[in-house]
Amino acid sequence: MHEEIQLTKMPKVTDRFRIENELLYQCIAHPIDVNNSIFKSNSFHSYTSTKNGLGYVFLAFIVRQALGFHRYPFLEDRILSDWRYGQFKDAFYTALDILDRQYQAIIDETLELYSFTQDILQQSGLSHVTISRAIKDKSHSYLYASHVARLCHEALNKGDNYIHVEMDILNGFASDTTYPGLLITPSVPIADILCFANIIGSANDPKVKTMEHNEWIVINRHPKGIVKIPLDAIHFKENLFDIDKIEMSLRDRRYDDDYLPVGRCTLGDRLFSYKHRDMSRKLSFKERVIEAFSYYQSLKKL
User: Fold this and answer.
1) Alpha helices, DSSP H only, in the chain?
2) Would residue 288 count as lying in a domain?
């Protein structure tokens, strides 16, 4: 671990990019800056608000379509492995209808945003940016930081100078060295930067920022979602992690098993409420697929 962490300063921008398409804007924008007029309720949460919302799901799909990269079958984002959108059904179908009708315009504007970002970074003389992502254990069942710390210890014991972790298609990084437990500071090629906080202006006022302060949105193009991180880009306070005593939770094992495919979890117990399943017997994978399809058909009729 280095004593001093040097991060790339976010370029200053005078003329910000103003997103015209309302769906694309609401996928990204800060919640206090979003006009929810296209939705009947406040159930469409933007990427800046949370990664566990419809805004992230739609934005990740749009970015993949615009930039032409894909995930391998069943290796989608983890959010889709345990996604229950029933409570967001109205917002989901509203957004889906808009995407269907305005697909090409949304793709074109996403490409314009990406090109705008690339031009700003190139004009600043940058080929890579060193930015940070703080990680902490959210609960006893979500030990992501402990998992990464343990991977670092195992890599050192094996003589490796890097680790592999799975990350989502879009990930928020920052220009900040403050961290409660563990900090990742990779050198990211500018080609993998979708946008950053100084770039996007409000739909009503281009001078008003719409993202979290110092935030960068980084694209993960790997078809399995794998990211290689050098050990010298990982900083943690060892007294916060008792590596030998970390009890691996289900969530932690999920990372260790290479990846938990959509088929092993979306088609399992977590997708269905009890009324949709005969709990007296275990289902084969084929039976789960058939039941999932039937359940999907029933949702379309709602």
Assistant:
1) 22-28, 54-67, 89-123, 144-158, 250-256, 262-265, 285-300
2) yes
